[in-house]
Design brief:
With about 200 residues, this protein is mainly β. It is about 5% helix and about 40% strand. The two termini are about 25 Å apart. The protein binds calcium ion (2 copies).
Length: about 200
């Protein structure tokens, strides 16, 4: 495949966002353009591993990202996964055990202010690259060790309207065994910019 065609394919990847403002967000996680979180998707059987960064003391375990359970209200730390307050985020890996054809990756978050929006880079790999490094820490570009950058996902609004429930959906990722989530803080004004991630769904083709 020529590099021009590859470039075009990269831009054809569709990323969709959705937002329920504080006034209407509720435990049902219903969105206009993105399906509600699922209990029974490929992520629910995947193995999650923290690669870099520390989860906050008040955060749930990584497994809460794929347990199909959702927070019942807008500020429920124990039902969300978030990196340590004051840190700049971190990285975790999802391993499906074998290569699967991924139709969608959907990420869901909920918080009444700056920990609501999402900002992350999504990478994928099939593990076949001889230089594949499953654990690239911050400072190592995953694209230099067998990972492919799939998308930069940002639901951050320029209207300063931060709170509520967010969903982001990346489509048509192709065939991969691993996903790497490189998670960033959404703001640096204070220590409270690490997103409350409630669930991540991976939908097979
Ligand atoms: Ca799920
Ligand atoms: Ca969950």
């Amino acid at each position: 495949m020529s590099s021009v065609v590859k470039l075009l394919l990269l831009f054809l990847l569709v990323v969709v966002f959705d937002h329920n403002p504080n006034s209407v967000a509720n435990r049902e996680f219903k969105f206009k353009n993105i399906a509600s979180p699922s209990k029974d998707d490929a992520a629910s059987r995947a193995k999650l591993t923290l690669i870099d960064g520390d989860l906050d003391q008040g955060s749930a375990e990584l497994a809460a990202l794929t347990d199909g359970r959702l927070p019942r209200d807008e500020d429920e730390p124990g039902a969300n996964v978030f990196f340590r307050a004051g840190s700049s985020g971190g990285r975790f890996r999802m391993d499906f055990g074998s290569v699967i054809d991924i139709a969608q990756v959907n990420t869901y978050s909920w918080h009444p202010n700056s920990r609501g929006p999402q900002l992350y880079k999504l990478y994928a790999a099939d593990g076949s690259d001889p230089n594949f490094n499953p654990d690239p820490k911050r400072g190592v570009d995953p694209a230099s060790c067998g990972w492919k950058l799939i998308a930069l996902v940002s639901t951050i609004s320029d209207r300063g309207e931060d709170g509520g429930q967010y969903a982001a959906s990346v489509s048509d990722l192709g065939r991969h065994r691993y996903l790497l989530f490189d998670i960033y803080v959404t703001e640096l004004y204070d220590n409270w910019g690490n997103t409350f991630y409630s669930e991540i769904d991976v939908i097979r083709k």
